[in-house]
Design a protein that fits this description.
The complex is a heterotrimer of chains A (337), B (248) and C (290). With 337 residues, chain A is an all-alpha fold. Chain A has helices at residues 2-24, 29-55, 62-79, 84-105, 111-131, 161-183, 186-196, 198-203, 208-234, 244-255, 264-278, 283-300, 304-320; strands at 141-142, 147-148, 157-158, 236-237. Chain A has a single domain (2-320), classed as ABC transporter involved in vitamin B12 uptake, BtuC (Orthogonal Bundle). Chain A contains 13 helices and four strands. In chain A, the strands form two sheets. Chain A has a two-stranded antiparallel ribbon with strand order 1-4. Chain A has a two-stranded antiparallel ribbon with strand order 2-3. The radius of gyration of chain A is 22 Å and the shape is globular. Chain B has a domain at 4-95 and 163-242: P-loop containing nucleotide triphosphate hydrolases (Rossmann fold). A six-stranded mixed beta sheet of chain B has the order 6-7-8-3-9-10, with helices on both faces. In chain B, strand 1 (8-19) and strand 2 form a beta hairpin. With 290 residues, chain C is mainly α. Chain C has helices spanning 3-31, 38-55, 60-88, 91-113, 123-126, 138-160, 162-172, 174-179, 184-206, 218-230, 236-256, 262-276; strands at residues 128-131, 134-137. The termini of chain C are far apart. The chains are: A mainly alpha (337), B alpha/beta (248), C mainly alpha (290). At the B-C interface, helix 3 and strand 6 of B face helix 7 and helix 8 of C.
């Protein structure tokens, strides 16, 4: 009970700290720009997080949902003069449509075949985006207007990254809330069960295919909403929103800190972007760094950075329990040494 | 078998196998000598398979294994599975015995051919066919088409072709017709007579008692009874629980 | 548009697809490893060949083995890092790690070779064979011959040699293979080294057809998926047939419909097949290396 109360007190406090962080850190344009991008990319990653961490599948099509959000916002605002609320609704609607199609097609596919197909979706989407004149082809869509979410006389606009920050922060807070709610929902429990013990799930009356589709439909709009805001932040959209960079960034965000850690993807995205913005070693070396981080974490720290804390915890525990008879040293004999 | 320890080709000391902190096997001492058949019996989940798999380094998952396993004079407990196999510590596991997409003939040729070493009898394919004529009849059939008994013969045959010093057999009688059970176990007796050391895991205690020299009873991973077959067979714990006798 | 010419183009393209896919076919069939870095390994092979020919002044015949050695080495490094996950069959980690390797390779290659396009020219690609109105380069002819030779040799090795038997044992049941004295770890290394060398060889053969860029590899990896899945996962003969069929399809699609969307069209074929037959056309995973 006290733990829960502590948590309900700590969360707004952490939120407040994060919200004022850019100001505290000097409040320069580049700090706000980094903060906005961290929020946007973290939201993008949360969409994938529920698929990888909860459902246990690797969807490589989430860059497509991100791109769908960006393209929908850019197309509607530049070609039809639509306002930001309308583009947001349309982005989410389009993402649901894409997720439904991809989800239905891949419903019976598992494991690597599922990943192959979702990866193929991403690659094909890139070639379509680069070639299709309707959505700007290789030039992309330029001249996305500033974000304007004004309601009934209340002016809510953002001309630059500093003014965009509250909206990015708000989007991040909503995404965190949704993911947290999801993990405490029946659907979240069903997803975990389908992931860890499909047979038991089926026997408990869960239809795995249905759960997969529902989780897919839940996750796609999250990534798409990030893409929506990204279009306004960058003021133009082109096929590079489908680049592998976003995929690798998302995956790193999901695995770096540890699976099913609510703030994990946010922390990981922040780490990666801070390195790229303020400690960049050049675009190509940054690629090598990001890719290597992803590999090293998976190969050597399967529980992420949180796993690193485990030995520390054990040492602490041992210090307090030093009276327990020490066990004989055991060697692990793995099958293939 | 008073000097079993000195002649033992398989020596196990303080073997512990633990899954996620739960001890599955805790064995202080076990020896098998040349020419000897030692039976391991016990209820389901007593740790019989865990024991033989642990000896071969073939455990499922990633248990913590500690203790000493010696094959002859060499300590093998840190060796990977395939090296223990090559050294002649052979496991014929339960169930997983044949390559289903290979013919019987090809299955036999999957056996690792050891360099001839003193004390190791390497059976040829023809000798296997002689031992199990049924396999010769079905040599062109695919592994997946074989019956349970034929798979068992094929698994044992492959092991014999690798020149065993110690044969670990995990429930060779499972799923076999009674007639075949006695045939397979009789074969074990013959092989032991030819100088092999055999550790035989069996659920069928009555059948096992026919062929083993010594019997070990496992309960929850620990040895609760050990001794010569004739003596152990009369023990009320064995008689009541495993032989269905109401009175000794 | 001359149909016969398109069929020739399709045959060349098809053998190129099959050749590019061969390493992955074996990798998937034997170790159940999915390599999303396959396309970038293709890119690496193409650039090492280009570097050896254009910068180091090596003859093409020497440049190919150099590229294969680099590819095999990279494959060994990948397998070393992923060994634990391979034994655990932790596909989620393996897939993400191979994506990471591809990304590192992309960054590394751009760093070393620059991001401008290059042309890999060989003595074979400069000369054409003309038969009346039909033509193809000697490089094209060499691709067809190389693909047939590689597929036939692989089939022979798998079915008729001791090494092939070891590979098939691990493909069917790695744990049982251990009990037959097989060093499974070494087989996994060998298969990944083959993947690296084979895709580098394929790149050295196929890359002279088009300009090469360090950002390439995506089209190759999609075509490889299609070939491997259509051919029946792990099936060598199936991959060859699927590769040639896919080549004919894309050549005709490119000529008759639109050259810009050939990858998308191939992908649609893949989707159609998967929706109708979720496990591909052959026996499906575990069908081994046959």
């Amino acid at each position: 009970m006290t733990a829960r109360r502590l948590r309900s007190l700590a969360l707004p406090l952490v939120g407040l700290l994060v919200f004022v962080a850019p100001t505290v850190l000097g409040g320069s344009g580049s700090v706000y720009s980094a903060a906005v991008l961290i929020a946007i990319f973290a939201v993008m990653a949360y969409g994938l997080d529920v698929i990888v961490s909860d459902l246990g599948e690797v969807s490589l099509a989430h860059t497509v949902f991100f791109a769908v959000g960006s393209y929908t916002a850019a197309w509607l605002s530049t070609k039809a003069g639509a306002g930001a609320w309308l583009t947001l609704a349309a982005s989410i609607g389009m993402a649901l449509l894409f997720a439904a199609v991809i989800g239905l097609v891949t419903l019976r596919l598992r494991e690597f075949v599922f990943s192959l197909v979702t990866y193929a979706v991403a690659v094909v989407a890139m070639s379509v985006a680069a070639n299709w004149a309707f959505i700007g082809g290789s030039d992309g869509l330029r001249g996305v207007p500033m974000l304007d979410l004004s309601i009934a006389g209340l002016p809510l606009t953002a001309r630059n990254d500093r003014e965009l920050w509250p909206y990015a922060f708000g989007l991040l807070a909503i995404a965190l809330y949704l993911v947290d709610r999801f993990r405490h929902s029946r659907l979240g429990a069903a997803a975990i069960m389908t992931h860890l013990n499909p047979r038991l799930a089926t026997m408990s009356g869960i239809d795995p295919a249905r759960v997969r589709l529902q989780v897919f439909l839940f996750s796609a709009p999250i990534s798409a909403a990030a893409g929506w805001l990204y279009a306004y932040q960058r003021a133009y959209v082109s096929a590079d929103v489908l680049e592998n960079y976003f995929l690798i960034l998302m995956l790193t965000a999901v695995v770096l800190v540890g699976r099913r850690q609510l703030l994990g993807p946010l922390a990981a995205t922040a780490l990666v972007l801070l390195q790229e913005k303020f400690f960049s070693l050049g675009g190509y070396v940054d690629k090598i760094v990001l890719g290597s981080v992803l590999i090293v974490v998976l190969a050597f720290f399967p529980h992420g950075l949180m796993g690193l804390a485990q030995p520390v915890r054990q040492i602490v525990r041992r210090l307090f329990k030093s009276r327990e008879p020490s066990q004989p040293a055991m060697t692990t004999v793995e099958n293939p040494k | 078998m008073s000097d079993a320890t000195s002649a033992a080709v398989l020596q196990v000391r303080n073997l512990r196998v633990a899954y996620a902190g739960n001890r599955a096997v805790d064995l202080q001492s076990l020896d098998v000598a040349r020419g000897e058949v030692v039976g391991v019996v016990g209820a389901n989940g007593a740790g019989k398979s865990t024991l033989v798999n642990g000896l071969a380094g073939w455990s499922r998952g990633e248990p913590r294994v500690s203790g000493e396993v010696r094959l002859g004079v060499e300590r093998v407990d840190a060796w990977p599975t395939h090296e223990r196999i090559r050294a002649g510590l052979l496991l014929v596991p339960e169930g997983r015995l044949v390559f289903g997409r290979m013919s019987v003939e090809e299955n036999l040729s999957t056996a690792f051919a050891p360099q001839t070493a003193p004390g190791r009898r390497v059976y040829t394919r023809d000798e296997i066919y002689e031992l199990f004529p049924r396999l010769a009849e079905r040599c062109r059939h695919l592994g997946s088409q074989l019956s349970g008994g034929e798979r068992q013969m094929l698994g044992i045959g492959r092991a014999l072709m690798m020149g065993p010093r110690v044969l670990l057999l995990d429930e060779p009688s499972i799923g076999l017709a009674p007639k075949l059970v006695s045939q397979v176990l009789e074969t074990m007796r013959t092989l032991a007579r030819a100088g092999l050391a055999i550790l035989l895991v069996e659920q069928n205690v009555r059948a096992a008692l026919e062929v083993v020299d010594r019997l070990v009873l496992l309960e929850r991973g620990r040895v609760v009874l050990e001794g010569p077959a004739a003596q152990v067979g009369n023990d009320p714990r064995i008689a009541q629980a495993y032989l269905g006798a109401t009175a000794a | 548009m001359n149909l016969t010419q398109q069929v020739i183009n399709g045959l060349v393209l098809g053998h190129a697809y099959a050749l590019v896919a061969i390493g992955w076919t074996l990798l998937l069939g034997v170790a159940r490893l999915v390599n999303f870095g396959h396309g970038q390994m293709y890119m690496l092979g193409a650039f090492v060949t280009w570097w050896a020919v254009a910068r180091a002044g090596m003859p093409y015949a020497l440049a190919l083995p150099v590229a294969m050695a680099v590819g095999a080495l990279f494959g060994l490094v990948m397998q070393r890092v992923m060994l634990k996950a391979t034994f655990e069959q932790n596909l989620v980690s393996i897939m993400i790690m191979t994506l990471g390797f591809g990304y590192v390779l992309h960054g590394g290659a751009a760093l070393v070779f620059g991001s401008t396009g290059q042309i890999l020219e060989t003595a074979l690609s400069r000369n054409e064979i003309t038969l009346g109105p039909l033509w193809l380069t000697w490089q094209d002819a060499a691709i067809i011959v190389a693909a047939i030779v590689v597929f036939a040799s692989l089939k022979w090795v798998l079915d008729g040699t001791r090494v092939g038997r070891l590979v098939r044992m691990v493909a069917e049941d790695p744990r049982l293979a251990m009990l037959a004295g097989v060093n499974v770890r070494r087989v996994y290394y060998g298969v990944f080294a083959f993947e690296g060398a084979a895709v580098a060889f394929a790149a050295g053969m196929v890359a002279p057809r088009t300009p090469i860029l360090t950002s390439m590899g995506f089209e190759e990896v999609i075509m490889t998926f299609v070939v491997v899945v259509l051919g029946g996962i792990g099936s060598v003969t199936g991959s060859y047939v699927a590769g040639v069929a896919l080549g004919l399809f894309t050549a005709l699609f490119g000529a008759l419909v639109s050259p810009a969307y050939t990858t998308a069209a191939a992908f649609l074929v893949l989707i159609t097949v998967l929706v109708m037959r979720p496990r591909g056309l052959s026996a499906g995973p575990g069908a081994g290396a046959h």
